[in-house]
Amino acid sequence: MRERQSLDDGITSVKRLSQALADNTDLIEMGEEEGDADIVAEAETAIRSLSGEIKARQIETLLSGEADANDTYLEVHAGAGGTESQDWASMLLRMYTRWAERRRFKVEVLEVHDGEEAGIKSATVMIKGHNAYGWLKTESGVHRLVRISPYDSNARRHTSFASVWVYPVIDDSIDIDVSESDVRIDTYRASGSGGQHINTTDSAVRITHLATGIAVACQAERSQHKNKAKAWEMLRSRLYEEELKKREAAASATEAAKTEIGWGHQIRSYVLQPYQLVKDLRTGVESTSPSDVLDGDLDDFMEASLSQRIEGSAGQPVADID
């Protein structure tokens, strides 16, 4: 039903926009025949006004992948550098949380490992909302921060790194077969806040897939059984995401030629000092207001990276109303 509604909305929208374009084109032709400049100008203005809605519909067509409509998991990991990178990781987590809140998505914290002095070593959250994975899937990679460190008494400029990993939540219609003999399951005490029970029992669970080395962990629940069930869901989602990447690489020579996202492969830089600039190194999209970006204003970056992915796989750009 969700797929049907999405298709119905898309078809209705295209028909309406096509009709509006045809009607105003006819008006222009009529105005030119009658020498009525006012009619021509009015119709041209109406056509230009359609560009905003057409752009929004174009962006929606970018979110048509197999799992794009699904909820998503998002992991943040601090890089080397101790407190600096851990503080940067917490800033990234807040940025994506604020972005999700702007879209009225629900954010569920599954695991957080706090830093020794400040920030976080790592965190995993689930973001629930229509097209959550589709919007966030191009955010995987290494994010770099340049700023005057608030933790440096000499006020020196520091560069910090943190990585983001995004993979879709899969539903019951997708079957990923993984047996317990294929994994290693570890239990441990949860860290951070959570009350006496969560900190004094081995309720947290980590599952490692032996063949791929993929590891997931969950400590959101007090019950080890519930954490284990959630970790199994996360593992299946990670394996499914790996399969999606393989399919993309096989279907597109451009994608196959890309370097695999890993540590040291930056996708975006956030400079707070000596100047203010956020720049996506893949698309060239920039913002001179890092405070807005860090407060969740990410749509321009996401739209550009999604468009680039579609252009690369299709071999042609998305149509431009101009």
TrEMBL record:
Keywords: Cytoplasm, Methylation, Protein biosynthesis
InterPro entries listed in its UniProt record: PCRF, Pep_chain_release_fac_I, Pep_chain_release_fac_I_sf, PrfB
Post-translational modification comment from the UniProt entry: Methylated by PrmC. Methylation increases the termination efficiency of RF2.
Modified residues annotated as N5-methylglutamine in this record: Q196
Molecular-function annotations in GO: translation release factor activity, codon specific
Superkingdom as given in the UniProt entry: Bacteria
Main location: cytoplasm
Ranges for domain Prokaryotic-type class I peptide chain release factors: 189-205
GO cellular component: cytoplasm
Subcellular location field: Cytoplasm
Keyword Iron-sulfur on entry: no
Regions that span the bilayer: none
The family this protein is said to belong to: Belongs to the prokaryotic/mitochondrial release factor family.
UniProt function note: Peptide chain release factor 2 directs the termination of translation in response to the peptide chain termination codons UGA and UAA.
Protein name: Peptide chain release factor 2
Gene name, Swiss-Prot/TrEMBL: prfB
